Amino acid sequence: MRDYEIVYVIRPDLSDEARAAKVERVHSLVTENGGEIGKVEDWGKRVLAYEIRHFAEGYYRLTEFRMPPESVNLVESRLNLDEELLRYQIVVRE
Questions:
Q1: Domain limits, the chain
Q2: Could you tell me which residues come within 8 angstroms of residue 11 by beta carbon, excluding any fewer than 6 positions away?
Q3: What is the 3-state secondary structure (H, E, C) of the chain?
Q4: How confident is the model at residue 4 (pLDDT cuts 50, 70, 90)?
Q5: Going by fewer Cβ within 10 Å, which terminus of the chain is more open, N or C?
Q6: Confidence check: pLDDT of 94 > 90
Q7: Which pLDDT score, from 0 to 100, does residue 41 have?
Q8: Are strands 85-92 and 55-67 parallel, antiparallel or unpaired?
Q9: CB within 8 A of 13, min separation 6: which ones?
Q10: CATH T-level topology, domain 2-92
């Protein structure tokens, strides 16, 4: 198991319920692939440095988790298909 963190940006036009469901979906992707959720931070709505898919703002979220290294690619492949995420980045925590 390794320590990771993911920062992701959710589309600003989603309702609060849809945004909460999206966060829960990201967390379930981690746990379904053998991971454990750690600290979660909501950074709120922020202005993007440049437009992404015609959006100038997005909701930022940080989640720390532990997961087997071989499972990270599976999570990333599922996140790539999600149209409600504008961007995400998973990095190894040292």
A1: 2-92
A2: 53, 55, 58, 59, 84, 85, 86
A3: CEEEEEEEEECCCCCHHHHHHHHHHHHHHHHHCCCEEEEEEEEEEEEEEEEECCEEEEEEEEEEEEECHHHHHHHHHHHHCCCCEEEEEEEECC
A4: very high
A5: C
A6: no
A7: 96
A8: unpaired
A9: 55
A10: Alpha-Beta Plaits (3.30.70)
